[in-house]
Amino acid sequence: MAGILAWFWNERFWLPHNVTWADLQSTEEAAFPQAEDLYLAFPLAFCIFMIRLLFERFIAKPCALGLKVQANGPQKAQPNAILEKVFTAITKHPDEKRLEGLSKQLDWDVRSIQRWFRQRRNQEKPSTLTKFCESMWRFTFYLYIFTYGVRFLKKTPWLWNTRQCWNGYPYQPLMPDLHYYYIVELSFYWSLMFSQFIDIKRKDFGIMFTHHIVTVTLITFSYVTNLTRVGTLTLCLHDAADVVLEAAKMANYCKCQKLSDLLFLTFAIVFIVSRLGIYPLWILNATLFELYEALGNFPALWVFNVLLVILQILHCFWSYLIIKAAYKAISKGKVAKDDRSDIESSSDEEETVPRSKTPHSTITTNGTGSSNGTNGYLTGGTCSEEY
Hints:
The protein contains 13 helices and one strand, in the order H-H-H-H-H-H-H-H-H-H-H-H-H-E. The protein is an all-alpha fold. It has helices at residues 2-8, 11-14, 41-66, 81-89, 96-106, 110-122, 128-153, 176-195, 205-224, 228-253, 257-295, 299-332, 359-364, and one strand at 381-384. It is elongated. Residues 83-127 form the Homeobox domain. It is a multi-pass membrane protein.
């Protein structure tokens, strides 16, 4: 294992020329980032997850009930052994041929069977109360860590001049505030990576998981190699839009439509300006050009830049979705549907009693009889992140 670690952390790969790991060893005069510090992220990630559970139960839930957020989940489908067997063992989305066969077997019209499958899929989805509590937790954390980051960075010289990120490298002492900022952010993203498997499932699960992996990798490698100054800029920039996004979702769950629309449009502006404007002109310019000019070329430089460019590609994808949703909201004067909806909805959702099959009903239910989507915005999940 020691040989594998020595091979992996080859200083000729990770560090610029004329810089060694010995240069990054802490001394009595100054402390520098150490790889061992990152082990703190795992127990802290568990603590953050436990704090989240307590927060959602004892703070977010009472707030949601006080705001009259709907506590009940989606309407449950009436028990039916035959349809339940098809749903669990064969398919959750029966095709037209199977629908017609079930219609003859049960003497139900096709539309009623479609409605049953839609309700059965929906009843496994989380309630609005659950989604509100998750958003309130993320809003609280993002607001705290973004505020902390701004307060820390406004006192640093590299916020105003990114060339200061490389000035004096590698002899850039690790400040306690920077160490705390890095470890808390890393712990939070580790907790997101694991909780994503038990959280509300989104349609962009794979994309968000990729985002979390890239983020954790960047935080880890930039800390070990003491490229933390540009890392703090990247972290703070990404947290800005997430605060507004979670606020918009909470307003949506509370049915404060005008406030939700306003917050979503604000989020769209902040996201696009920060991710498509400031990020490439500020962060990518610093790592692609200024870092090369200051420290020269070394292999890890391209690893960092490839990961940062992957983030930019995700930003472009999410920006496209956000712009499309904002255009719908403005042009139609109402909330756009969320293509990543948690609940399928239909104008006839309230009807639960299946109608007997008649020639008229068979003719009128050749279509799907439903429309996908719920209240919500088509958002990137930063991002979340994410209705």
